[in-house]
Every structure is written in structure tokens, then in C-alpha cells.
């Protein structure tokens, strides 16, 4: 079966492509490298020379290129990962987040329409929930995103839902909690370049001595230890959720939103403690004030995903930390890389 994967050079898009290729799918991948480079693409092209086909495309501006790329390729499902994804950055350049994330989605939808393609799996985010007092979060929780990033994800869900209600597309919108870790095969590794906004690359940079201190934003939240609590999920669990969602949406109609999280909340300090035990590295920290757009607590009720797509997470925090650190154990290889 043939798939279109947007954002294929990124952390999750490349991890998904790798697993899908291993399972025998043919993957048409595209990316414009705005938040990635060619590393993952080269790995996938070398390992799967016949079944991974890549083109550099800016989805937000190059509609004709997208159309040509997928024309007559018998693609059955689109997995739309491409997006700008930093909560912090979205507060600084909101216009660019709206433009990139929405325009990319419109162009993907237009190309799908021209090709008569209906099945879509969308990368949404737990940030659509915002600051809810009711935790864990079910998919029915009120949607009041705090950040511009979260608002772009919610706006896209709205558009997709409307089109699905009019029977134009069928969509599984996956609300990810906090994916961490690298693939166990060690081929696709989360980038630790200095523009990465996710927590684990920042922790690893300090463990390697690339950065001096890890900044904990906020230690005055109403949580057990005052730091923000999140639902971290192993990248491999997240990817298996996508494969289950692809299977599901190919035989379903309409729009479904699904949480991909473990259902367990972990504070920033707990994460650091587990990481330091797993890596046997010190990670010096400093506390700073809360970040705009951040919420105190955010963790999933994954019951709906368990039921609807028969998906369950398998890995615990210790394994997430071990698998995050493993590719960087030989620190010399990465020292100074940024
Ligand atoms: N990593 C997380 O913590 C997390 C959490 C929730 C949701 N998500 C969502 O998952 C998806 C993938 O996230 P990721 O962590 O792999 O991020 P990433 O930045 O590593 O990957 C996203 C990829 O999309 C590409 N891209 C962005 N705009 C593009 C455009 N206009 N045209 C072509 N390519 C474009 C980037 O270059 C990048 O390679 C994103 O939609 C993100 O919002 C991620």
C-alpha cells in the first residue's frame, strides 16, 4: 500500500516512515527542511531505495508540486505531520505559525481532492486542550488552547471535521501528548540541534556538555513538586498508534479524534531524575519563570484509543529515558554538534 507522509524528514515523520517501510508500505515523503535536514531522508533512501521516494516541497506555497508528487501514485492514505511545532516560538511569530500550518494543510487537502484521496491521519496535539482543571483529559474535554501553536492545531481539526461531516474526507486526528525517545533500532534519532524545542533534546544537550544547564520553566505550579506535569510517551508507542489509525481510517467514515498518551503524569523533575539514573550523567538545572503558553498539568485518558483503534502504550518512563540516551552514549560523536 502506498502512503503520503508530509514532514518525513522530521522526528516523528521519519520514525513513522521507517516503521511503515519495514512493514512493506511504499512511502512518498516530502519536507522543506524548515525544522530538519537531510539526515533522516538519506537513511531512509539508503535502507529502502525502492520504496521510499522523497521530494523537497514547501507544502505551504507549492501546491502544484504537491499535486504532481502524488498524482497517479495510487496513494491510499495521507499522514500529515508537516507543521511548525514549538509552543514558545509560536508566541513570538504567530503569523508564521498560522500561515505555515494552515496553508500547508489547505494545499494537502486540495491535492487530495484532485487525486480523489479521502483517508487522512493528522498530527494534532494535546495543546488543543489548554489549561483544563479536569485531568486526565478525555477527547470530550473543552478545547481552549493557550498557545498560538495549539490554536493552529485546533483550527485545522475544525476544518477537517467540517469536511469529514460533508463526506469529503475521513480523518483520524491524533492528539499526541509528549513523545520522547529514539527508535530502538537506532537508525532514526531525535535531533538535538540547538533549535529543537522539545524537552528531551534539551536534556541530552546538557548531559553531553553541549549546554551548561537545563532550564526548568516554573517551579511554582500547583503540582507535587511545583514543576509542570506531562504525559511522556515512547516514540515507538506513538508510531504504533499511527499504524493502527491508518488501518482504522481506511475502513471508517467521518472524523475521529484520539488521544495518544500513556495516562500517566510525570513532573519535569521526575523526568530529569529518571534520565540521570538511566544515563548515569549529571544534568545541572536552573529554575526560570513560567513560559507563555505552558500549562501546569496535561495528561491523557487513552481509553478511546484503546477501544477504537485497539492501541495501548507499552513502554514506561525508564525505557523512554534509556532509549533517548542510547544513541548519544558515545558522546564524542555528538559533542559540539548544534
Ligand atoms: N514532537 C512533539 O512533541 C509533538 C507533540 C504533539 C504534536 N506534534 C506534531 O507532530 C508533527 C511532527 O512533529 P515532530 O516532532 O516530528 O516535528 P519536526 O519539526 O521534527 O517535524 C516536522 C517536519 O515538518 C516539516 N515542515 C514544516 N513545515 C513544512 C512545510 N511548509 N512544508 C514541508 N515541510 C514542512 C519540518 O521541516 C519538519 O521536518 C507536527 O505536526 C507536530 O506539531 C509533535
From TrEMBL:
<keyword id="KW-0520">NAD</keyword>
<feature type="domain" description="NAD(P)-binding">
    <location>
        <begin position="4"/>
        <end position="323"/>
    </location>
</feature>
<protein>
    <recommendedName>
        <fullName>UDP-glucose 4-epimerase</fullName>
        <ecNumber>5.1.3.2</ecNumber>
    </recommendedName>
</protein>
<dbReference type="InterPro" id="IPR036291">
    <property type="entry name" value="NAD(P)-bd_dom_sf"/>
</dbReference>
<dbReference type="GO" id="GO:0003978">
    <property type="term" value="F:UDP-glucose 4-epimerase activity"/>
</dbReference>
<comment type="pathway">
    <text>Carbohydrate metabolism; galactose metabolism.</text>
</comment>
<dbReference type="GO" id="GO:0006012">
    <property type="term" value="P:galactose metabolic process"/>
</dbReference>
<comment type="similarity">
    <text>Belongs to the NAD(P)-dependent epimerase/dehydratase family.</text>
</comment>
<dbReference type="InterPro" id="IPR016040">
    <property type="entry name" value="NAD(P)-bd_dom"/>
</dbReference>
<dbReference type="InterPro" id="IPR005886">
    <property type="entry name" value="UDP_G4E"/>
</dbReference>
<dbReference type="GO" id="GO:0005829">
    <property type="term" value="C:cytosol"/>
</dbReference>
<keyword id="KW-0413">Isomerase</keyword>
<dbReference type="Pfam" id="PF16363">
    <property type="entry name" value="GDP_Man_Dehyd"/>
</dbReference>
Amino acid at each position: 500500500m502506498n502512503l503520503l507522509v508530509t514532514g518525513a524528514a522530521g522526528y516523528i515523520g521519519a520514525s513513522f516512515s521507517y516503521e511503515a517501510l519495514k512493514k512493506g508500505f511504499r512511502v512518498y515523503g516530502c519536507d522543506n527542511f524548515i525544522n530538519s535536514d537531510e539526515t533522516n531522508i538519506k537513511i531512509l533512501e539508503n535502507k529502502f531505495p525502492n520504496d521510499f521516494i522523497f521530494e523537497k516541497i514547501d507544502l505551504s506555497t507549492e501546491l502544484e508540486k504537491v499535486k504532481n508528487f502524488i498524482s497517479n501514485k495510487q496513494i491510499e492514505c495521507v499522514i500529515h505531520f508537516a507543521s511548525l511545532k514549538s509552543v514558545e516560538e509560536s508566541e513570538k511569530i504567530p503569523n508564521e505559525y498560522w500561515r505555515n500550518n494552515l496553508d500547508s494543510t489547505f494545499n494537502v487537502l486540495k491535492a487530495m481532492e484532485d487525486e480523489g484521496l479521502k483517508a487522512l491521519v493528522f498530527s494534532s496535539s494535546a495543546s488543543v486542550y489548554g489549561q483544563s482543571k479536569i485531568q486526565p483529559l478525555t477527547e470530550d474535554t473543552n478545547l481552549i488552547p493557550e498557545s498560538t501553536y495549539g490554536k493552529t492545531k485546533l483550527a485545522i481539526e475544525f476544518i477537517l471535521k467540517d469536511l469529514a461531516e460533508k463526506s469529503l474526507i475521513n480523518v483520524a486526528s491524533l492528539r499526541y501528548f509528549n513523545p520522547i525517545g529514539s527508535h530502538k533500532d537506532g537508525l532514526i534519532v531525535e535531533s538535538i540541534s540547538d533549535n529543537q524545542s522539545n524537552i528531551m533534546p534539551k536534556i541530552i544537550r546538557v548531559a553531553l556538555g553541549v549546554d551548561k544547564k537545563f532550564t526548568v520553566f516554573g517551579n511554582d505550579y500547583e503540582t507535587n513538586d511545583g514543576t509542570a506535569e506531562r504525559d511522556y510517551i515512547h516514540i515507538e508507542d506513538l508510531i504504533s498508534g499511527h499504524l493502527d489509525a491508518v488501518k482504522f481510517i481506511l475502513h471508517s467514515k467521518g472524523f475521529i479524534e484520539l488521544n495518544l498518551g500513556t495516562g500517566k503524569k510525570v513532573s519535569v523533575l521526575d523526568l530529569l531524575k529518571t534520565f540521570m539514573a538511566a544515563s548515569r550523567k549529571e544534568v545541572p538545572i536552573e529554575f526560570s519563570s513560567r513560559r507563555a503558553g505552558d500549562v501546569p498539568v496535561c495528561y491523557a485518558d487513552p481509553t478511546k484509543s484503546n477501544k477504537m483503534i485497539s492501541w495501548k502504550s507499552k513502554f514506561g518512563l525508564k525505557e523512554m529515558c534509556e532509549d533517548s540516551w542510547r544513541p548519544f552514549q558515545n558522546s564524542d560523536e555528538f559533542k559540539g554538534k548544534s
